[in-house]
């Protein structure tokens, strides 16, 4: 099923669609001079696709914070957090698939660029299991990917160019689809612009920008004059997600608005010149002699922990099926254990990659209304190892002893160690090689022998073999249960 959204109408009144799935794979470049309707186009695209895909907006002017009022985006004020907090928030955003707006309007230009670069780099460096699809819209992209050195420091320029290049060149494999919008194509780094396969070109007047836009649209110099004549809100579109041939589109209406929207003309005051002069000078000396009014106290910003909890809470609420109520992690423990036990008993489950198992686990939790946002990939691996080893058969004392011994065991050998320890706690003989191979997720007898050697060398188990070839395995620390 192909997810398409209507971006506007062509000259004949027919809808012009954008294929969101194709957009995720091919990226988008938007260009238009100030006043051409570029931000309006971005807003339309974000509003129409809000229910289909995660969205991350880099907003240097604070124009897109109103998305939070209608579509549940979380606003992150970039000036309120440290570099490490911004990076931690970016990681949480990828983990919980939260749609956010990174508002940078309270920062100086160079601070905006560094904050955005650190944020984008953290999104890009997220663990593989969190590579979910997301649209990353960067407004005023010429700031973050300049074609030439300007007034910003050279290390800042290198940092932001690296982040933007990673987004546009290598982001697709990590689920990140860049949407870059710029006023000046000539000021945007070519290696960033060249990675986009879809284009929406608005009104521009400078020849150098007009010619680059025409080249991207496959138009000759004479046809390029059309770009200069475009009205506000009208764009020429081309690309696999839009149209195979250039198409003129008038962008549709939007529900939200930017804080910098112009109010239009207003009637001027009707006071005569002498009356206006008297108003301007009345009590001027007395007012100037008074001390300056104190600045208002800054609005308190939410601490990073509170914002992280909000991201997790919204993600959990979005994942919860309609009609179900939220549950605390302690109340969900039974549901989580039941799902994990069910997965562990399925044939071939232990042979699957951990990332696939984690996604399957998250889907089952959503279907049953079980909260799982508190369980990350590391925690899931240990819980799945416990379920695979069958620790649910043990009584409370046996299980507590086994889990205490397993606290320092590496994740990659945890499941077979737990299976051996569980058998020792119950007083049974150790699992045979076939059972250990199933739990370990391998079909190689050699790997099982090397596994047992490793566990013995690290002191986790003791292996004894008699002259008849019979092998017995004991677990130090569980002697009281064996007796």
TrEMBL record:
Under the heading InterPro entries, the entry gives: ATPase_Atu1862_pred (IPR014588), HerA-like (IPR008571), HerA_central (IPR002789), P-loop_NTPase (IPR027417)
UniProt GO MF annotations: ATP binding
Q: Does the keyword Cell inner membrane apply?
A: no
Tell me which residues make up the Helicase HerA central domain: 5-83
Supply the alphabetized keyword list. Answer: ATP-binding, Nucleotide-binding
Pfam families per the record?
A: DUF87
Q: What is this protein called?
A: ATP-binding protein
Q: Per the UniProt entry, what species is this protein from, by scientific name?
A: Alteraurantiacibacter aquimixticola
């Amino acid at each position: 099923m192909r997810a398409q959204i209507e971006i506007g109408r062509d000259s004949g009144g027919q809808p012009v669609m954008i294929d969101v799935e194709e957009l995720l794979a091919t990226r988008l470049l938007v260009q238009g001079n100030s006043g051409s309707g570029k931000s309006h186009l971005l807003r339309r695209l974000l509003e129409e696709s809000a229910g289909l895909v995660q969205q991350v907006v880099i907003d240097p002017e604070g124009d897109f914070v109103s998305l939070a009022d209608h579509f549940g985006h979380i606003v992150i004020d970039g000036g309120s957090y440290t570099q490490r907090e911004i990076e931690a928030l970016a990681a949480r955003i990828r983990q919980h698939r939260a749609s956010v707006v990174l508002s940078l309007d309270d920062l100086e230009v160079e601070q905006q660029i560094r904050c955005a670069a650190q944020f984008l780099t953290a999104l890009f460096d997220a663990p593989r299991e969190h590579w979910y699809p997301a649209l990353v819209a960067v407004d005023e992209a010429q700031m973050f990917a300049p074609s030439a050195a300007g007034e910003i420091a050279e290390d800042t320029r290198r940092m932001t160019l690296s982040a933007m290049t990673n987004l546009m060149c290598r982001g697709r494999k990590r689920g990140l689809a860049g949407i870059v919008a710029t006023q000046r194509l000539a000021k945007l780094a070519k290696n960033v612009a060249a990675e986009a396969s879809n284009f929406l070109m608005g009104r521009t007047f400078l020849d150098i920008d007009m010619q680059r836009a025409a080249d991207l649209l496959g138009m000759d110099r004479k046809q390029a004059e059309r770009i200069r004549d475009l009205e506000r809100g009208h764009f020429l579109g081309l690309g696999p997600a839009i149209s195979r041939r250039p198409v003129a589109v008038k962008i549709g209406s939007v529900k939200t608005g930017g804080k910098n929207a112009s109010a239009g003309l207003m009637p001027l005051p009707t006071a005569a010149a002498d009356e206006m002069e008297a108003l301007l000078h009345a009590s001027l000396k007395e007012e100037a002699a008074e001390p300056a009014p104190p600045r208002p106290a800054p609005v308190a910003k939410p601490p990073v922990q509170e914002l992280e909890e909000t991201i997790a809470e919204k993600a959990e609420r979005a994942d919860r099926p309609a009609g179900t109520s939220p549950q605390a992690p302690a109340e969900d423990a039974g549901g989580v254990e039941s799902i994990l036990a069910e997965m562990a008993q399925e044939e071939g489950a232990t042979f699957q990659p951990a990332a696939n198992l984690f996604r399957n686990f998250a889907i089952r939790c959503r279907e049953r209304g079980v909260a799982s946002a508190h369980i990350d990939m590391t925690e899931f691996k240990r819980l799945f190892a416990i379920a695979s080893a069958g620790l649910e058969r043990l009584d409370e004392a046996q299980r507590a002893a086994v889990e205490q011994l397993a606290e320092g065991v590496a994740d990659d050998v945890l499941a077979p160690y737990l299976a051996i320890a569980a058998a020792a706690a119950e007083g049974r003989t150790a699992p045979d090689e076939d059972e250990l191979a199933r739990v370990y997720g391998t079909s190689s007898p050699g790997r099982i022998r090397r596994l047992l050697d490793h566990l013995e060398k690290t002191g986790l188990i003791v292996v004894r073999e008699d002259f008849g070839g019979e092998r017995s395995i004991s677990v130090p620390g569980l002697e009281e249960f064996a007796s």
